[in-house]
Amino acid sequence: MTDSKKRCAWADSAPDFPHYHDHEWGFPVADDQRLFEKLCLETFQSGLSWRTILAKRENFRLAFHQFDINKVAQFDEHDIEELLNNAGIIRNIRKIYAVINNAKRAQEMIAKEGSLAAFLWRYEPDENTLPPPETQTTCKESVQLSKDLKKLGWSFVGPTTLYAFMQSMGLINDHAEHCFMREEIDKARKAFERP
Length: 195
Fold this sequence. Notes:
mainly alpha, 10 helices, 3-methyladenine DNA glycosylase, Adenine_glyco
């Protein structure tokens, strides 16, 4: 990176990371489609690097109709076959089935709770109970959210996957203490209207 801004260490490890770090990662999100997209992308990331997923994100968006929950929930064997032949995405059949399953579970959750956001934001950790940034990969809330989603039939929603989801969707501010974005995210979280 050519500027002199101090970022989280991971943000300078790949050419496309600084923009993602500065403009997306950690800003609070209440939009169901964006939350669902992130849950899906975290599913595909399981066992892989985020760089791989970020590089293919636009391909994923095209293949999964911009992660429209209702459209993905209707995917059938023909759609699955197309996805398995799509070299632009991660062609893992278990993960593809998980995303389709989770779209159906998301529909159920929206019908019951009013929105995905309303359910997911209940698991926002108390900032005063969290250890310093960049020191953990799970928290008690991500563990509980994982258990609760699994009980509701969701798949590929382990505590580490959900902690990464919480970090990126602004449920916690895990920017490093020295990172110039930490204060920006604090402001955004204070101004954010919880669903």
